[in-house]
């Protein structure tokens, strides 16, 4: 009865109601088209990705639920050999398609649920397979939900420019989390994840790139939701702490406001801030001033901060149809890092993320 | 971790937990049941953006135990 009431309330189409973690969620089919473009200072275009995606969820048998996802990433552009140049074998540009899919089957019992998931991803020089298991337990009043899950993955890595290169990587991960209803208008989810990876991490297209063959990663994610009746809006605030055995440490804070406009429109402004400390073996100079023989000039594991403002508009139609468009603009720069970036020579980096989707509830 | 950042984290968590966790009855959950109160109101958008950020930044995780890898990071 509560879910029927929720679906009758106009607002943004949802595929994960906060109260539905202890029973199958309503069915939904969604298609979206995402476009990503990035460039560096001076307007040098780098990468463009176009990604049609489809996702669906369907309850069945009264107590079970299946969720599936499929995407084809079409990537084109130039991948820099070093962090701020377009040169070398990649200078003429690359084109690659990535196909990824995953599925998850969940069965709900009286006091808990069990879920099994499979995932696969395939591209010219990278193939990945994984499986996961998840258990959720909730209190008698359903105000508290505990989640435990584990996953295992196996990746094969090759090179498009060196047919003799082949390596692999194994990944094991665990998650422990709790979702707590705080009061009638708010709830909090807190998750801790740990991932152990062993194998090849270096970039096969960067001859001098030499990274450790293991990586331990720890994340602590907190997601807070608050409904404000006076403005008919939901406030989202997410914070994540991350650190790993490579020395990377980051903080991520994202806030968003879901505001209904009239009966069938909604708008969601958002702002994300991210700050990262570099990996121990990162160096923007060569020969590198690092220890242990490891070295990478990959901008992605350097010191930097980023700000991402975004906006999303949703329109709800009759019979459970929804359309949405969203746009985010990423500004990544060493000077945005919390604390000192120590006169980093790395160029500013910009990206545009556009997404448009259509969905049907059933 | 620098003291100011640690303090901010503690304050963030404390501010939330200072609110007493009330025993909310099922008939009192009308606000929590709103679609806009979902942890992820749009799975596709969330996945796409997460993939973008994880392939352009040096960190990931917190949302699930694991997932498929890619050659983007």
Write a brief structural summary.
Chain A is an all-beta fold and 362 residues long. In chain A, 2% of the residues lie in helices and 62% in strands.
Protein model, in words:
The complex is a heterodimer of chains A (362) and B (73). Chain A has 362 residues and is an all-beta fold. Chain A contains 1 helix and 16 strands. In chain A, a hairpin with a 4-residue loop joins strand 14 and strand 15. Chain A is globular, with a radius of gyration of 22 Å. Chain A starts with a helix and ends with a strand. With 73 residues, chain B is mainly alpha-helical. Chain B contains 2 helices and no strands. The longest helix of chain B is centred in the N-terminal third of the chain and has 15 residues. The two termini of chain B are 25 Å apart. The mean pLDDT of chain B is 77. Chains A and B meet through helix 1, strand 1, strand 2, strand 4 and strand 5 of A and helix 1 and helix 2 of B.
Write the layout of secondary structure elements.
The complex is a heterodimer of chains A (362) and B (73).
Chain A: H1 2-8, E1 28-40, E2 44-60, E3 64-77, E4 94-108, E5 112-123, E6 126-138, E7 144-158, E8 166-183, E9 186-199, E10 214-228, E11 233-244, E12 249-261, E13 265-277, E14 304-316, E15 321-333, E16 349-361
Antiparallel strand pairs in A: 1-2, 1-16, 2-3, 3-4, 4-5, 5-6, 6-7, 7-8, 8-9, 9-10, 10-11, 11-12, 12-13, 13-14, 14-15, 15-16
Chain B: H1 3-17, H2 43-56
Main attributes of the structure:
heterodimer, A: 362 residues, mainly beta, 16-stranded antiparallel beta barrel, 1 helix, 62% strand, B: 73 residues, mainly alpha, 2 helices, 40% helix
Give the structural class of chain B: mainly alpha
Strand order of the largest sheet of chain A: 1-2-3-4-5-6-7-8-9-10-11-12-13-14-15-16
How large, in whole angstroms, is the Cα Rg of chain A?
22 Å
**What fraction of the residues of chain B are assigned to beta strands by DSSP?**
under 5%
Query: Mind describing the biggest β-sheet of chain A?
Result: 16 strands, antiparallel, barrel
Oligomer: heterodimer
Proportion of residues in extended strands of chain A: over 45%
- Give me the secondary-structure category of chain A: mainly beta
Number of DSSP strands of chain B? Answer: 0
Q: Would you report the number of β strands of chain A?
A: 16
The total of helices of chain A stands at 1
As residue ranges, the low-confidence spans of chain B are: none
Distance between the termini of chain A: 16 Å
Which range best describes the helical content of chain B: under 10%, 10-25%, 25-40%, 40-55%, 55-70% or over 70%? Answer: 25-40%
**Which word captures the global form of chain A?**
globular
- From the alpha-carbon coordinates, what is the Rg of chain B to the nearest angstrom? 17 Å
| Cα shape of chain B | elongated
> What average pLDDT do the residues of chain B reach?
77
Instruction: Give the end-to-end Cα distance of chain B, rounded to a whole number of Å.
Output: 25 Å
Low-confidence stretches of chain A: 1-17, 80-92
Q: Pair with the most extensive interface? A: A-B, 119 and 57 residues
């Amino acid at each position: 009865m509560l879910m029927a009431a929720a679906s009758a309330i106009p607002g943004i189409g949802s595929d994960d109601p906060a109260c539905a973690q202890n029973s199958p969620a309503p069915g939904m089919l969604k298609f979206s088209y995402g476009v990503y473009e990035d460039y560096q200072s001076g307007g040098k275009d780098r990468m463009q990705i176009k990604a049609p995606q489809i996702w669906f969820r369907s309850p069945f048998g009264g107590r079970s639920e299946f969720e599936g996802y499929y995407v084809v990433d079409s990537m084109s552009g130039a991948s820099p050999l070093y962090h701020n140049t377009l040169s070398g074998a990649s200078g003429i540009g690359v084109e690659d398609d990535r196909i990824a899919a995953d599925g998850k089957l969940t069965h709900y019992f009286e006091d808990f649920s069990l879920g099994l998931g499979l995932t696969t991803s395939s591209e010219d020089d990278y193939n990945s397979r994984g499986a996961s298991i998840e258990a959720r337990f909730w209190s008698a009043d359903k105000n508290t939900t505990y989640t435990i899950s584990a996953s295992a993955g196996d990746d094969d890595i090759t090179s498009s420019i060196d047919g003799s290169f082949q390596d692999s990587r194994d990944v094991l991960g665990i998650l422990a989390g709790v979702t707590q209803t705080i009061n009638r208008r708010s709830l909090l989810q807190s998750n801790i994840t740990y991932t152990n990876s062993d194998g090849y991490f270096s970039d096969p297209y960067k001859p001098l790139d030499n990274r450790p063959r293991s990586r331990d990663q720890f994340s602590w994610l907190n997601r807070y939701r608050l409904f404000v009746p006076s403005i008919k809006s939901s406030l989202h605030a997410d914070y994540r702490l991350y650190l790993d055995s490579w020395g990377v440490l980051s903080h991520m804070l994202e806030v968003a406001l879901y505001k209904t406009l009239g009966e069938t429109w909604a708008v969601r402004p958002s702002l994300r801030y991210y700050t990262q400390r570099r990996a121990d073996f990162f160096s923007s100079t060569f020969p590198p001033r690092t220890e242990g023989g490891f070295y990478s000039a990959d901008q992605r594991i350097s010191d930097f901060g980023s700000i991402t403002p975004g906006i999303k508009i949703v329109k709800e139609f009759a019979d459970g149809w929804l359309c949405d468009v969203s746009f985010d603009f990423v500004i990544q720069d060493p000077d945005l890092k919390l604390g000192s970036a120590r006169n980093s020579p790395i160029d500013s980096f910009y990206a545009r993320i556009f997404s448009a989707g259509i969905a049907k509830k059933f | 971790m620098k003291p100011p950042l640690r303090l901010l984290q503690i304050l963030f968590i404390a501010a939330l937990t200072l609110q007493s966790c009330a025993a909310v009855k099922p008939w009192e959950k009308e606000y929590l049941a709103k679609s806009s109160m979902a942890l992820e109101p749009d799975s596709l958008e969330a996945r796409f953006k997460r993939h973008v950020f994880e392939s352009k930044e040096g960190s990931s995780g917190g949302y699930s135990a694991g997932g498929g890898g890619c050659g983007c990071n």
